[in-house]
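This section describes the prediction task in plain terms. A model, or a person checking by hand, is given the sequence of a single protein chain and must write out its three-dimensional structure as a string of tokens. No templates, partner chains or ligands are provided. The sample shown here is typical of the held-out split.
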Amino acid sequence: MDPKYPRSADLILLPGARTGRDPARSIKPGPRRQPAGVVAATQRERLLDGLVRTVAERGYQRATVSDICRAAGVTRPVFYELFSGKEDAFLAAHRHGTGVVIRRMAAAFAAESDWCAGIREALGAMLQLLAGTPSFATMAVIEIEAVGPAGRRERDQLLTRFRAFFAEVPQLPGGVGVQEMVDAVVGGVYSAVYRRIASGRTDQLTELLPVLSMFCLAPFLGPAEADRRLGSRTGEDPSCTRIDPATTGQ
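The expected answer:
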């Protein structure tokens, strides 16, 4: 595993990374029971893990609240204390998990000195996280469509957050709209990730890094320059240097 994208205990795990019935999160009854807030938070985490694994295995439409509760080791009354229903729980798991992914991508992006390397490292962080938690990848990327309009809105919001990584791309020649190009690139990345997961090759997602990196950079730099930047990470290049908002008055 690349040490640049650690999965150590001090990092927040994606929903589905643990079983809902993980013994380490068992709730002890009796007078030494944990505070109510801690108990509720633990039950919520277990339900999100149970939901992700159940939806990945059975599909959103076939998964029931009873299935989710059974996978989490949590009762139905407790489920309905925390969520209004299956859709509410699904969206909570999706928001939490994609928030983890975006934050890890942002950290990898910020660690680089130019946007070319930053985009590549952000992609690498995303691919490794999804490859390492296949149940979440299936739930979040494949099953989100089955949720209906609310799921599609969540996906659109996620793609909007992904577009932020392209805020520093150079202008395109010939009057080609940058935002339209970014939309096309972001949609293409999502489609490639979707196809890999849908075909049962989630564990091979990291193999997409070279092609997705080229796909993200080539429209803005040209294929030859993108290849040069991806092949050599040393030195600075004006076409890829970060823009400091403090120097532009933004």
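For orientation: The two ends are 39 Å apart (CA to CA).
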